[in-house]
Specification:
Elements lengths: L1 H16 L1 H30 L10 E6 L5 E2 H10 L3 E10 L2 E3 L4 E3 L2 E4 L3 H5 L5 E2 L14 E4 L1 H8 L9 E4 L2 E8 L16 E4 L12 E9 L5 H18 L7 E5 H6 L3 H31 L2 H9 L4 H37 L14 H27 L3 H7 L8 H36 L10 E7 L11 H13 L4 E7 L10 E3 L1 E2 L12 E7 L3 H5 L3 E4 L13 E5 H7 L9 E3 L9 E8 L14 E5 L4 H5 L7 E8 L7 H11 L4 E7 H8 L1 H35 L1 H9 L4 H30 L15 H27 L3 H5 L3
Parallel strand pairs: 6-11, 8-10, 18-23, 20-22
Antiparallel strand pairs: 1-12, 1-13, 2-12, 3-6, 3-12, 4-5, 4-9, 7-10, 8-11, 9-10, 14-24, 14-25, 15-24, 16-18, 17-21, 19-22, 20-23, 21-22
Helix pairs in contact: 1-10, 2-8, 2-10, 2-11, 8-11, 8-13, 8-20, 10-11, 13-20, 13-22, 13-23, 14-18, 20-23, 22-23
Length: 809
């Protein structure tokens, strides 16, 4: 400890003697360590931290193809026939209108079977959860609320249990409050704040309506593979009995379902900040090597007085660790600020983003990389110090004519490594930028500019009664059209990108009836007249839906370009007929009256699929069914100015018809599009920022190396000038030396990037991971930066006065 304290005091004196040197080194390390800490905090919260449920590794999700919902009858059969799960429950998305003390608002909720909450193993903060089978006892109108809902609507009152709330015009009794940190489901319906019982008695024979997500807990003696094999056996048996209903059922760990989509991107970001730290370490190693060159006499004297190699190495490593710890402390401050920025910029697709913070694991990670960094960049000067020979030092370096072959090689290796890592980072950022530009170039099939959207729900109001909706929404549209600045207005059940996706099976007239498993389906849209005009969606053939397309008129349908091309290739689809009913049992036929341009659906970059648009006034379910999922439409209004400025006027128009009607998700279509592309934009921003830092560090590194090299070779350059070397010769000498190192780094980095960028293939769109344009542009950029960084010290070298240089000691 006495010797360690001596080394620490000496290291602190060294740092204090060269404050500029120390600040630059600490700043470089702070950038690298801070970026690594910030990104690791995200990885820790999203990927490493277990889900906040009891024994979460045994929780699974069961879905068609691993992503599609399940029909009620299938769930009931799976629940009865399996032997691999302790419990199995189902959840269904629900967005009821909550009637509070002042107004009505839309809430995010789930209907769940009584098995779901107990299987999670999280005790309520107050009250209880649903008892098993209590739905059968007539208690389906009970509700469990979140801690946030409790605070917002009941001010955290302890007597909330037994209180009555109104959801969609029906009364529910609050029986429990979940803890503050409880969230369910952790994927899909992540905003849920209410949980009500799910009654499936009327779905015992329904194998077509797929709306359930299935959750199950593995038995202690069962494995995921055994559960998958058993479910394959059960579903194969059911598929044979009910064709087309139980295909491709997959059992997934709940954690995998939560983080699977973002894992590759986060690992890419973690690798990227690792490269930034390595470049920072190489820079600091350059600086320490340069400083150690001026300490040769000190080291030689210490060696002559009996200091061994181990003692000298320990002193140098102590000095480097002091710099590293200082950089780590500054990096921790930068990381805490960076985390707030990350949370603010992060897209909603990244799960558990609100739990990101600096905890014990993050602190240990920061301490670990700080110490490793201190050792890594401290090894070069430490090794050089132990290899120092006083006689060689006097021959190679004391006169300033040459720096020493081994020293030059080590510095050159560090420069090459910096440019290698910088190129890998820049190529990754370049690929993401080109991919993002390709995404931005996608034609959405409509014009989002100047377009306002708002979900209008009549659930629980008088407008939801039989016959009222057929008048309310057309009247509302007419009111909106009369607002100054509104050019056109209409409505649709589910907005592209911002709405749900419902699919319906259909049959084409005159075609053989396929097997149930092969029945075609299309996305089901319900629209009011003027929708395509409002969205600026091109009608390629036929006509739009009109006010006369009501229940008294023959059924009509508008289809998209993809559906027309697939089912009537080379034919005119106008006048063709389809049915949504059983074609063998007096079906209602719908005549195709229009074909519209393909539009994006739920995901921005998804390929086009079949889509059909039915008149709202010919859709009995939307006109008569009291269910909440048929009791709302999304209003769209095209404006001549800023659409957001008309929000208040739209609200007034709705309240003029019925004050109890609920408006939610008020946003412009530009915001919807921005949200749809937010994830790739987020990754582009981060990778671009890291690549920029890497580029600056690499440029500063080669500039520093060349500047120091020129200062050490003043005598040599002076001799060359005295012997007739011209300015251009000196420039070529110095710039050529730096450019050669940079080109080696670019070449080695290109080889590494060709292998590394293949890991990014899942994040790219429209380009491959080996895109030649990106590699060439990045290579030229780095080479240009290297030339510029070398040119400045080269110009200084070319102005050396030979007389002064020959006197240089």
């Amino acid at each position: 400890m006495r010797v360690l304290l001596q080394d620490l005091r000496h290291a602190l004196r060294q740092a204090w003697k060269s404050p500029g040197f120390s600040l630059v080194a600490i700043a470089s390390l702070a950038l690298g360590i801070g970026a690594n800490t910030a990104i690791f905090s995200v990885v820790n919260a999203v990927l490493l931290r277990p889900l906040p449920y009891h024994d979460p590794d045994r929780l699974t999700v069961i879905l068609h193809d691993g992503r599609n919902p399940v029909a009620g009858a299938n769930f009931l059969d799976w629940q009865k026939q399996n032997h691999s799960f302790d419990s199995m429950g189902a959840a269904e998305y629900w967005t009821p209108n909550f009637t509070g003390s002042d107004n009505t608002e839309k809430t995010w909720a789930l209907r769940i079977t009584s098995d779901v909450l107990p299987m999670l193993g999280v005790e309520p903060e107050l009250g209880r959860v649903f008892a098993r089978n209590e739905q059968e006892l007539g208690k389906e109108h009970e509700v469990v609320i979140s801690h946030r809902f409790w605070q917002n609507h009941f001010a955290g009152s302890p007597d909330v249990l037994g209180r009555l709330i109104t959801l969609n015009g029906e009364t529910y009794t609050v029986i429990g409050v979940m803890p503050r940190e409880f969230k369910f489901a952790p994927f899909w319906a992540t905003k849920a704040e209410l949980w009500a019982p799910l009654v499936l008695n009327d779905r015992a024979n329904d194998r077509g309506g797929r709306s359930l997500r299935i959750f199950a807990r593995l038995k202690s003696n069962a494995t995921l593979k055994q559960a998958q094999v058993e479910m394959a056996t059960i579903t194969a048996r059911l598929e044979q009995r009910y064709p087309g209903t139980n295909e491709n059922v997959v059992v997934l760990p709940l954690k995998e379902k939560v983080v699977g989509n973002v894992r590759p991107a986060l690992l890419v970001l973690l690798s990227a900040v690792g490269f930034v730290l390595l470049i920072a370490c190489a820079n600091v190693a350059h600086m320490l090597l340069s400083r150690s060159a001026g300490r040769q006499r000190e080291i030689a004297i210490r060696s002559a007085l009996g200091a061994g190699n181990l003692r000298i190495v320990r002193q140098f490593l102590t000095e480097s660790c002091v710099l590293a710890v200082s950089g780590g402390a500054a990096g921790l401050v930068l990381a805490s600020c960076g985390i707030r920025v990350l949370v603010a910029l992060s897209p909603h697709e990244i799960p558990r983003i609100d739990t990101i913070g600096i905890d014990t694991h993050v602190l240990l990670f920061t301490l670990g990389i700080t110490l490793v960094a201190g050792i890594v960049f401290g090894l070069a000067p430490a090794i050089r110090a132990t290899a120092l020979n006083l006689g060689d030092s006097l021959k190679e370096g004391e006169r300033g004519s040459s720096e020493g072959i081994r020293y030059n090689r080590l510095r050159s290796l560090l420069v090459v490594s910096e440019f290698t890592f910088a190129l890998v980072l820049l190529v990754g950022a370049g690929l993401m930028i080109r991919s993002f530009l390709a995404l931005r170039a996608i034609d959405p099939g409509f014009n989002p500019h100047g377009l306002l959207s708002v979900v209008v729900s009549v659930s629980g109001t008088k407008e939801a009664r039989l016959g009222e909706r057929s008048q309310f929404y057309p009247q509302l549209i007419e009111q909106i059209r009369n607002i100054p600045g509104v050019e056109s207005a209409s409505a649709i059940n589910h907005l592209p990108l911002g709405g749900d996706i419902w699919g319906l099976s259909f049959h084409v007239e005159g075609r053989p009836v396929p097997r149930p498993a092969d029945t075609p389906s299309a996305t089901y849209r319900v629209v009011l007249p003027g929708y395509f005009r409002t969205m600026n969606t091109t009608i390629l053939r036929g006509r739009d839906i009109t006010e006369s397309d009501d229940l008294r008129a023959p059924g009509v349908v508008v289809i998209n370009q993809w559906m027309a091309k697939r089912y009537w290739p080379g034919e005119d689809p106008i006048g063709k007929r389809i049915t949504l009913d059983d074609p063998n049992n007096h079906p209602a036929w719908l005549t195709v009256v229009g074909v519209v341009k393909n539009a994006v659906r739920s995901e921005w970059a998804s390929p086009p699929e079949e889509e059909m648009f039915l008149p709202y006034l010919q859709s009995p379910q939307y006109l008569e069914d009291p269910a909440s999922h048929f009791s709302y439409l999304t209003l769209v209004a095209r404006t001549s100015g800023d659409p957001g400025a008309l929000t208040a006027l739209v609200r007034e128009a709705v309240r003029a018809l019925d004050r109890n009607v609920v408006l939610s998700e008020v946003q412009t279509m530009d915001q919807v599009v921005a949200e749809a592309t937010s994830e790739p934009r987020f990754y582009v921003l981060l990778l671009g920022a890291f690549a920029t830092v890497a580029l600056i560090l690499a440029a500063v590194g080669i500039y520093g190396v060349m500047s120091y090299s020129v200062s050490r070779r003043t005598r040599d350059i002076g001799i060359r000038i005295a012997l007739g070397a011209r300015t251009g010769d000196v420039l070529r000498l110095v710039v050529g030396q730096g450019a050669f190192l940079a080109l080696i780094g670019v070449g080695v980095g290109s080889i590494i990037a060709l292998a590394v960028t293949r890991l990014m293939s899942g994040l790219l769109y429209g380009i491959g991971p080996t895109d030649p344009i990106t590699f060439v542009v990045v290579g030229l950029l780095l080479s240009g930066i290297a030339v510029v960084a070398c040119y400045i010290p080269a110009r200084r070298a070319a102005k050396v006065d030979p007389i002064v240089a020959l006197r240089y000691e």
